[in-house]
Amino acid sequence: MRRILLGAILCLITAVAALAQQRPQYSQYVQNNYLTNPAVGGIESYTDFRLGYRTQWAGLEGAPTSFYATLHGSLGNNGIGSSNSSRGGFSKQNRYKRAVPHHGVGMLAMVDKAGLLRTSTLNLSYSYHLPLNRYLTLASGISSGITQFALNTQNAAVFDPGDPYLSGAVQNATKADLALGFWLYSPDFYVGVSGGQLLRNGSDFAQGGTISQPHLRQQPHFYGTAGLRLPLSSDLSVVPSVMVKATESAAPAIDFNLRALYLQRIWGGVSYRHHDAMAVMAGINVSTLLDIGYSYDLSTSSMNQVSAGSHEVVVGFKLNNRRKVICPTWVW
């Protein structure tokens, strides 16, 4: 009975959270910053293809689940030299070469489900990477597409059978989406800012209603992130990073991350999401084609009493990898 009650409370929390924080939450965005910033598209010398799946608050009915696929690469030769050998490590022989001005294109497909609401997104992106000097490059990017919201009330616990919002049908709303971003990067650090859902489109499910209610509109989401590569030896490096997320209707959220990479193949790390969760993550760059990552989040709120934590798995493919890169060049 206690779990049923808490599950009902969770559904309410999820609905409220969906209005304030409408984009899915990921722990392994540190492995795929393209998720939040279109300027990252085409940053590497290969075509980056990633599949990710996340289940949040495992064990609770109606808890959020999310799946995404990203694909991005450069147009033509972006001039990036090989950053690592098959053995890995850091040395004068495998240091980085300067990037040349180049264009990037990409695609993001995402399906997120939270309670009765399913959100499906398909975006295409374009970016331009402009070297400022020998080691510093500034990228700007834009992405646009569509987002569909589907509200399925067939399995809802109805208190008012006459409520038109809970008619038992699947109600849909499809809206345009727009995101902008900037990414300043070098072999040893990166700084990025971006904004998503910038069109503020309304998403009204009421039959014959209006979209004038502010709480039913897409909220712009803003992201600021930075990371620094610190080589401890020729075989080991650490990367501390931070992300600040903000919306108009919620207080800013801050993530702190610390990852370590050995021989550019095996990595592990921890993450702390302020007032939300702690995460442990690990992965392996299996080959010049394949890499795999996993993370487990443990809630630091009362949610940890009724859920089994959150799980996230990411599988990456380095396609058209002519330079046989093992680990991403620009600040893994």
Give a written overview of the molecule.
This protein has one helix at 2-20, and strands spanning 47-55, 65-75, 102-114, 117-131, 137-152, 170-185, 189-196, 221-228, 230-231, 236-247, 250-262, 266-273, 277-285, 290-299, 310-319. The protein has one domain (2-319): Porin (Beta Barrel). The chain has a 14-stranded antiparallel β-barrel with strand order 1-2-3-4-5-6-7-8-10-11-12-13-14-15. With 332 residues, the protein is mainly beta. The model is unreliable at 1-20, 85-96 and 206-215 (pLDDT under 50). The chain has one helix and 15 strands, in the order αβββββββββββββββ. Helices cover 6% and strands 48% of the residues. The chain is globular and about 55 Å long.
In CATH terms, what is the fold-level topology?
Porin
Shape: globular
Radius of gyration: 21 Å
Q: Report mean pLDDT, rounded to a whole number.
A: 81
Level-2 CATH architecture: Beta Barrel
Report the end-to-end length measured between terminal Cα atoms: 46 Å
Most strands sheet = 14 strands, antiparallel, barrel
Strand order of the largest sheet: 1-2-3-4-5-6-7-8-10-11-12-13-14-15
Uncertain stretches: 1-20, 85-96, 206-215
**Total number of strands:** 15
Output the helix-strand order.
HEEEEEEEEEEEEEEE
- Broad structural category: mainly beta
Number of discrete helical segments: 1
Helix proportion: under 10%
As a percent range, the share of strand residues is over 45%
Number of domains: 1
CATH class: Mainly Beta
